[in-house]
TrEMBL record, chain A:
Protein name: Multiple sugar transport system permease protein
Entry keyword Metal-binding: no
Organism name: Nonomuraea wenchangensis
Pfam families, A to Z: BPD_transp_1
Alphabetical GO biological process terms: transmembrane transport
TrEMBL record, chain B:
Pfam families: SBP_bac_1 (PF01547)
Gene3D superfamilies: Periplasmic binding protein-like II (3.40.190.10)
Keyword NADP: no
SUPFAM superfamilies with a match to the protein in the record: Periplasmic binding protein-like II
UniProt KW Zinc keyword: no
Source taxonomy: Bacteria, Bacillati, Actinomycetota, Actinomycetes, Streptosporangiales
Naturally occurring in which organism (per UniProt): Nonomuraea wenchangensis
The protein's name: Multiple sugar transport system substrate-binding protein/lactose/L-arabinose transport system substrate-binding protein
Signal peptide coordinates: 1-17
Keywords associated with the record: Signal, Sugar transport, Transport
UniProtKB/TrEMBL annotation, chain C:
UniProt membrane topology term: Multi-pass membrane protein
A Pfam family the protein falls into: BPD_transp_1
Family the UniProt entry places it in: Belongs to the binding-protein-dependent transport system permease family.
Lineage summary: Bacteria, Bacillati, Actinomycetota, Actinomycetes, Streptosporangiales
Major place of residence: membrane
Domain ABC transmembrane type-1 intervals: 112-303
GO cellular component, one term: plasma membrane
Subcellular location per the Swiss-Prot or TrEMBL entry: Cell membrane
Protein name: Multiple sugar transport system permease protein
């Protein structure tokens, strides 16, 4: 490797002008590192510290040990939020991944119909997310003025209070997430499909493999890196869901909607942190979220791969 | 905290106390000054309060008050953040019990120090009480009032052969049945307070119950509370009140015969739903076994403790109770065709933006009305109480269990 | 693994060329049959967007009609601009004229401006700062390089919400609440961008950089004149990510914005949401959503090629 400065071990013997260049290197790193330290590392450490305190934003933080975490363990609302989140994450990631793959298999050609379809399915990814939430809220309006209830009436049903029916909450959240996200996954899969050498299929065809066998034994295994990426980023994104709950389901004095049926981790964090100003307690929630996502990320092979290269 | 004394450490250490713990130095009360007033509500309401502020400026040329809107959606979080960080407005308005919360964090001025008790006699007693902290401090006073009424479609009631709106719980249920029999698909719905504690509030007090006893002990585990909840739940489960909230004027417009909704609906109904003109009327809520008690809402206004102009701010608050300020606000509200009920019961008929007939209905409701409990722990409990009520309405638990659970939460938060 | 040059990422076209000759007769029919459900699924895309657009075009009186009209009968732009509106006399029952609604200076344009300003500043700033650091990490053999890079990779596992509360308190203590600084500065050091750029640079040969050094160019100049142009495809890909993320950023602005004037589009839209309730309000709410979406959709339609390539690049090689 031809860097400007010899590798570590010979450092002490570098001439003065090289040291100067060394200084330039650090100067170039500095803006990033300073910001990174100030707004990520330091807050992260602080958030850990705050999670062991009863900080309320006004009075100095008082160290309370593991009290917040003990309280969290016994907090029915938090357990409810965890359960809701888990259900939502699993359902939306599984459904979203399957549909992404299906769409990619269906529309990976260069023809106009395929391109139009790809553009169409990708459209939600480039539309303002809050606008989409407001649109869903209007589609699910609780009278026949709303689209969903109009359709229900066409089919002979009676008005459904979509957003005030707890059993429909998670399905609606999953629907919104899958609807908005499958086009993005599709684009990734289309790229993945394109990187599979055509020769593999030719060879398989000569061996008499059926379409299904070719899909099962060539396409799927070779798409595994893409699938891993789609699933892992999907999981991480789904765990951080906030807007859908805040915009669509929040009630007048309860962030989780009717019976807390839409309560999730990040909305609960916001609720405790910014409508109750229990900053210590909210920091404990933040760290639980961190630990969950940390474990999920370890699964992500990108880290291992990246380190090998360095 | 010594560790927080240097600026850099203070800036980055997230756990330090906010600087405003000490008393804010007061500015010279005669120098030119500009006070900011964060008003929770809509832009139109802001404009009406600005008129009062302009009038105040005429009388005190050195004082300018700038009113700014906070939307109901995020006002509480914004004000709480301002209160804890000691940055933000000199004057603020918000939900009736909010100033108690901010006051408890040391962010509000106890207005008693500025002679606010003079206003007490002019206000509606229950509403005033609701803004008073448990320790007696007055961090906020009512800025305006709101209440509920039963709006009904005269044409639909006529069609069903009902000649007067229901006056009691029994009549309400009976009329719903009659309307249904006459082919009215949507006999009844609730706008303000639907599936929420405010909706239950009316039935609770109409049955003779209360959220708290006079000395702030949770009192939801009473037969009255159970009777109220059972009746309310039946309205949904037996009599088909929708669980999803449809905005009041829209509900009337789309064929709902009777709607419980806030006073503001009365304003603008004729202009926004021209089809309804002459086809609707309003009445006080039907009375329960213990009477017609109705919820009184509204906003509280207070002065922040970190304001440099606390004295002037308090004077402005007092000014909002004067005849001329009320007239200025009402004039502008009339121009904008929006609802305004002044915080003085004697001014409801003359000083609100409603027709005398409408104002009579509201005056009647307010006369016997009660306001949100200002007891310790209520704000923390409200959403949990609402959740218990919801589980009864949605058939997850029975009324008795739901109320026992709600009482437990209130007990715990009462400390 | 090396990052593929951009031109290798036009997969669809290449693959389909092979597909043509062999897809004959029944196989093709079957394939089309299998596609049918996905064509039907596309209706779920068309219908909600269509609903949004017709809502924007309907005047309030038409919006509260039951059943709703599916072709606007009296299409108008009152939801954007209401000719009868005046600041002195507002008709509060209807919510229309979204450009006049907000009583801040310049109204809705101000939120649009805020969003554009913040998104641009963060995108440009982050790309500059991250590419500088990436250049050092990828091409300078300096001490602590591995540790720094490891730390940055590890930080990608931190959900940003974990730092929400401390960062909020820091903004408060610095007096940055309700300023553009609070919008921009904490968003500049993006670990993912740095990581991606380092990956990309590692696959770029060193000859050009070496040659420039031989010619006596300084490191800053090399970065500006050689590294940045080399990074162009990667910067294009990353700018798409950053623009989309910042344009939609909601929770952070929600926390740091205090005054009406400083809201970005998502926060302003959420404020419109507090008017939600009556059907005749939906026109203005959807109009707001429409305005917030048009810039990114147009951006996408113009740079469509870069979008799909950029996403593919990050997904396959990231």
């Amino acid at each position: 490797m031809a860097g400007p400065v010899p590798i570590g071990g010979r450092l002490r013997r570098v001439p003065v002008d090289r040291l100067r260049r060394y200084g330039t290197s650090y100067a170039m790193l500095l803006p990033f590192l300073a910001l990174f330290a100030a707004f990520l590392l330091w807050p992260l450490a602080n958030s850990l510290y705050l999670s062991f305190t009863s900080f309320d934003g006004v009075n100095p933080a008082v160290f309370t040990g593991l009290d917040n975490f003990a309280e969290l363990a016994g907090d029915a609302r938090f357990r409810h939020a965890l359960g809701n989140t888990a259900l939502y994450v699993v359902a939306s990631v599984v459904l979203g991944t399957l549909l992404s793959l299906g769409l990619a298999l269906a529309f990976n050609g260069p023809s106009w119909p395929h391109r139009i379809m790809r553009t169409l399915f990708f459209l939600p990814s480039v539309t303002s997310s809050i606008a989409l939430m407001l649109m869903w809220k209007w589609v699910l309006f609780p009278s026949e003025a709303g689209l969903a209830n109009t359709i229900v009436h066409w089919l002979g049903g009676s008005t459904v209070p979509w957003l005030a029916t707890p059993s429909l909450t998670i399905p609606i959240l999953v629907l919104m997430s899958v609807w908005g996200g499958m086009g993005y996954g599709m684009v990734l899969y289309v790229a993945g499909l394109g990187s599979i050498p055509e020769e593999y299929y030719e060879a398989a065809r000569i061996d008499g493999a059926s379409t299904w066998q070719r899909f099962r034994h060539i396409t799927l295994p070779l798409l595994r890196p893409v699938t891993t990426y789609v699933v892992v980023t999907g999981l991480i994104g789904a765990f951080q869901v906030f807007e859908a709950v805040y915009i669509v389901f929040r009630g007048t004095n309860n962030i989780g909607g009717v019976l807390d049926s839409a309560l999730m981790i990040v909305p609960y964090l916001y609720d405790q942190g910014f409508t109750h100003f229990k900053l210590g307690y909210a920091s404990a929630i933040a760290w639980v979220l961190f630990l969950i996502i940390f474990v999920l990320s370890l699964v992500n092979l990108r880290v291992g791969r990246a380190m090998k290269e360095l | 905290m010594a560790a927080c004394s240097t600026i850099l450490v203070a800036a980055l250490s997230t756990a330090c106390a906010t600087s405003g713990q000490t008393r804010t130095e007061q500015a010279d009360q005669n120098a030119p000054m500009t006070l900011s007033f964060w008003s929770t509500g809509g832009d139109d309401e802001t404009a009406t309060f600005q008129k009062a502020a302009d009038l105040y400026h005429q009388k005190h040329p050195n004082v300018t008050v700038k009113v700014q809107t906070l939307s109901w959606d995020d006002a509480y979080a914004k004000l709480l953040a301002a209160a804890t960080s000691r940055t933000g407005p000199d004057i603020l308005s918000g939900g009736m019990t909010w100033t108690i919360q901010f006051g408890a964090r040391g962010a509000m001025v106890d207005l008693r120090k500025h002679g606010i008790d003079a206003l007490k006699g002019q206000a509606q007693p229950a509403q005033w009480e609701s803004a008073v902290s448990p320790d007696g401090s007055v961090y906020g006073v009512p800025l305006d009032m709101s209440t509920l009424a039963l709006y009904y479609r005269t044409d639909l009631l006529d069609k069903a052969g009902i000649d007067a709106p229901p006056k009691t719980w029994e009549e309400l249920v009976k009329d719903i049945g009659t309307l249904k029999a006459a082919g009215v698909k949507k006999p009844y719905s609730q706008d303000w307070g639907n599936l929420d504690w405010i909706g239950y509030f009316n039935y609770l007090y109409q049955a003779g119950g209360a959220f708290y006893t006079a000395d702030c002990k949770p009192s939801l585990d009473t037969p009255q509370a159970e009777q109220a909840l059972t009746y309310w739940v039946d309205l949904y489960r037996e009599h088909g009140a929708p669980t999803a909230t449809v905005e009041g004027s829209d509900a009337l417009d789309t064929g709902t015969a009777m709607v419980v909704a806030g006073n503001w609906i009365a304003k603008g109904l004729d202009t926004n739903k021209p089809k309804l003109k002459g086809k609707w009327a309003m009445a006080p809520l039907p009375a329960g076994p213990a009477g017609p008690t109705t919820f009184i809402g509204g906003r509280a206004i207070g002065v922040t403790s970190y304001s440099k102009y606390a004295q002037t701010g308090a004077d402005f608050v007092k000014f909002m109770y004067t005849d001329e300020a009320i007239a200025a606000v009402a004039d502008e509200a009339r121009k904008r065709n929006i609802s305004y009920i002044p915080p003085r019961p004697d001014k409801i008929v003359g000083g609100s933006t409603f027709t005398p007939e409408q104002a009579q209905v509201f005056a009647q409701a307010i006369g016997t009305g009660k306001a949100a409990p200002g007891c310790p722990g209520w704000d923390e409990s409200a959403s949990d109480v609402a959740k218990q009520l919801q589980s009864a309405i949605l058939g997850k638990t029975d009324a008795k269990t739901a109320l026992a659970e709600a009482a437990k939460v209130m007990q715990r938060n009462a400390g | 693994m090396a990052v593929a040059p951009m031109d290798r990422l036009a997969p669809a076209r290449r693959r389909a060329r092979h597909e043509q000759p062999r897809a004959g007769g029944r196989a093709r029919r079957n394939r089309h049959l299998l596609r049918l459900p996905f064509y039907l699924l596309s209706l779920t895309m068309v219908v909600p967007f269509y609903w949004l657009v017709i809502t924007v075009l309907k005047p309030p009186t038409e919006l509260s009609r039951i059943p709703p009209s599916f072709v606007p009968e009296s299409p108008s732009f009152v939801n954007f601009h209401d000719p009868e509106w005046s600041a002195e006399r507002v008709n509060p029952g209807h919510l229309q004229g979204v450009f006049q609604r907000f009583q801040v200076e310049f109204g809705f344009w101000r939120f649009l401006f805020n969003s554009v300003l913040v998104t641009t500043a963060i995108t440009v700033g982050a790309l500059l700062i991250c590419s500088l650091a990436a250049y050092v990490i990828a091409k300078h053999r300096i001490r602590g390089r591995r540790v720094i890079f490891l730390m940055i990779i590890a930080s990608m596992m931190v959900p940003w919400q974990t730092t929400l509360i401390p960062n909020y308190v820091i903004m408060r203590n610095l007096g940055w609440l309700d300023t553009y600084t609070a919008y921009i500065v904490p968003g500049l050091a993006k670990a993912f961008v740095l990581f991606f750029l380092v990956q990309f640079l590692q696959s770029v040969p060193n000859e050009l950089i070496q040659a420039a050094r031989v010619d006596g160019a300084g490191e800053w100049r090399i970065w500006w004149q050689i590294v940045l142009p080399l990074l162009r495809p990667a910067l294009a890909a990353m700018s798409i990510f950053i623009v989309l993320a910042e344009w939609n950023n909601f929770l952070w602005p929600l926390v740091i914005v205090q005054s009406d004037e400083m809201a970005n589009l998502p926060v302003a839209l959420a404020r419109l949401n507090s008017y939600f309730g009556a059907p005749d309000h939906q026109g203005a709410i959807m109009a707001g959503g429409f305005i917030a979406s048009v810039p990114t959709i147009v951006f996408f339609l113009i740079f469509q090629k870069y979008f799909t390539r950029g996403i593919a690049l990050s997904g396959l090689k990231g």
